[in-house]
UniProtKB/TrEMBL annotation:
Record-given protein name: Kinesin-like protein
Record Gene3D superfamilies: Kinesin motor domain
Pfam families: Kinesin
UniProt similarity note: Belongs to the TRAFAC class myosin-kinesin ATPase superfamily. Kinesin family. KIN-14 subfamily.
GO molecular function annotation: ATP binding; microtubule binding; microtubule motor activity
GO biological process, alphabetically ordered: microtubule-based movement
Domain of life, source organism: Eukaryota
Binding site for ATP: G207, Q208, T209, G210, A211, G212, K213, T214
Keywords tagged on the record: ATP-binding, Coiled coil, Microtubule, Motor protein, Nucleotide-binding
Amino acid sequence: MEEEASVAPSSSLPPAEAPAEEAQVTTEQGSTNIIEALDDDCLITSPILKAVPGPDLSSTLLLLGSKYNALLKTHQALRSDREVLRKKCAEVCTPRYEILKKKYTDEREERKRLYNEIIELKGNIRVFCRCRPLSSEEIAKGYSCVVDFDPAQDMELQITCSDSSKKQFKFDHVFGPKDDQDAVFAETLPIVKSVLDGYNVCIFAYGQTGAGKTFTMEGTPENRGVNYRTLEELFRISDQRSSTTRYEFYFSMLEVYNEKIRDLLAGTSDQLLKRLDIKQAADGTQDVPGLVEAQVSSIDEVWEILKNGGRNRSVGSTSANELSSRSHSLVRVTIRSENFVDGQKNRSKLWLVDLAGSERVGKVEVEGERLRESQFINKSLSALGDVISSLASKHPHIPYRNSKLTHLLQSSLGGDCKTLMFAQISPSSADLGETVCSLNFASRVRGIENGPVRKLTDPSESFKLKQMAEKLLQEEKEIAKLNESLQLMHLKYASRENVYKALQEKIRDAEQSCRSYQQKVRDLENQLADEKKANKDTAKFSKPPLAPMKQRPALRRINNMLPPPGPQTVKITNSMADKENDLIANRTSGRDLVKPLNKARRISLATSIRNVPMQNKRASIAVVQDVAERSQALPGVRQWNHITGTTQLRHRRSSLSTFMSLTATPLEAASPEIKGKFSAFASNSKHKTPPLVQALWKSRIPGIASPRKRLRLMSSPATSKNLNAAQSSANKLCFSVQKRVIVGSPAPTRPAMNPGSMIYNQLLRDKDLIGRFGTAQRVLCKNRRQSVI
Ligand SMILES: Nc1ncnc2c1ncn2[C@@H]1O[C@H](COP(=O)(O)OP(=O)(O)OP(=O)(O)O)[C@@H](O)[C@H]1O
């Protein structure tokens, strides 16, 4: 009987599953939309989620569940996209890439071979002759030009000797006074390019003092020399090949002065004076340990270094040149390259050498230190001549170590190294002897056949060479095309890599979000479980102390539900039981019958709406008038008095759920009929309902003398008619009082009771509901029915 089945539906949560439609839509949107959708899924950090109140947890969980499932699907879609992309790449791109790579490697090797062949056909050691113009000083002194340049023959020159005889010299190229730096470098360029193919290259200027060696090699700011232009070209080509090859340039500058090596890039004078030696490296090349190697990446850096190094150079004044170079100046550029396509690595060296003046000691009026310098200069130049002679005669021993200069240049002279010599001459008749000596030396050098050098004497050879040149041009064009397509492939590959990385990033984010959602769902579930438990505990703690069953006959009587078999045990605390018993004892002993009831401690309202069965069983039924009727009868607002325990009703101004006040009526004040009935009932009932409680009820409806009578009236159609007539504009509420009943709303400012505060508030809400419906309701809180209104 006291356990009613009409328990309010709890907030049990359905499993967190995404709605099927949403998941379907998300899957069909494709990866792009999915990624966009992912960006919108910011629930984890959303302040909305943080502000979710407790009762909305179930809906939040549902939302999270759907988002979580959507994310899972997104994750799967991204994974499948990635797999498709990878397969596609493997199927289409990789074979094409491999073919192109092979083609490119073959072509590159072919180009190198052909190019090198052309250089070799021209000669691995090439000699250019350059003659400077007559200086104003020489003209002023009346010196004449002894060099005859035939414009039709750019490889020959004639020297008019003092006896008017003519000497003819042939070189790979002859530059006259009118040829500028551009023309010189144009012929130098092919050899310079070889260094980027991995060949060692040595370019040096030889000649007497003041013949223009420094001018050719270094030049002036207005007329840049070979050094500057060479490095500029190297940087340009390396940039051009940057998609397939990475180049690194290391710059060193040194001089050989009096057979001592000096580092021109040394920062301090101590370092400048430091003695440097030549050592053989593990790869057989010559190296100078301790030499400064500056990595350069632009021509501006190179120019700055050149200027600084030039300041440290040993110069002195001679009768031939006011700022004569008294040492051999050497610039070494080490180039390290790595090809991205086939992984081939190269290391090559480029030497740019400005030799000291080659004048004979007797001719130049020097003495002391200058004389000593000249002796060292001539010695080293003589050693250079010996090396070249040995190379020319294919002697098994090449005397590289006879001087520091030849020792340093060992790996760049001979073999498959490319050597270019500028034979600088003066046109002045005053320098005729030195000019002839220089030309003889240059001719000797030019006679060397390094490798398969062949002279261009045979016309058929010339024809072959032309054909090869044409073929080379075509090959170069082909290579350029291949390079382009290779670059395109690289770009495509890079873009796909980017997409792949982006997808991986998204997948990582999605996985992270999934984990966050899972955690959030777990937290919310835990929170919900805690709240459920708290609610259960609260309900348990908020239960008012129940009187022993034997004192509760009224509840049995008010309902038509059968009591459960067997005795009911009610667990109450000692303090509560004592309070109840004391009160009952006082009342039954008649000592305090008129004393108002204490504050109600227990009430429950049923949320299931149903009519209370009106049977002829219970007398504790009251009819409540509506607000209009009540306000007429009771002008003042009355409420439950917690202090005195007066059973009063309070009319709520804004609610329809108004109840009529019931004035506590003492048993003595009741009519004799009621008094008699209640006394009989009390004495007969084994539950011993306190007479005070029974006496509280007094009909407010005229004509209904007693509850029992009223019940009869209400049960019968005739009585109902009468009642309707009497209360046509009013809603009626039937309520029963078990022991003490709160009817109506307690004071609004009443503080929440702990731990039963939630139940208390629930009661208030339910009472409002009852007021609106205007009918009898039964309230069950969890498993325990507390009272019936
Ligand atoms: N081709 C040229 N055109 C114009 N002027 C030149 C040319 N070659 C050299 N000169 C000038 O001749 C002078 C001497 O040149 P430079 O100093 O280069 O000679 P050098 O051979 O280096 O002498 P040293 O061996 O003593 O250093 C400079 O003033 C230079 O400007």
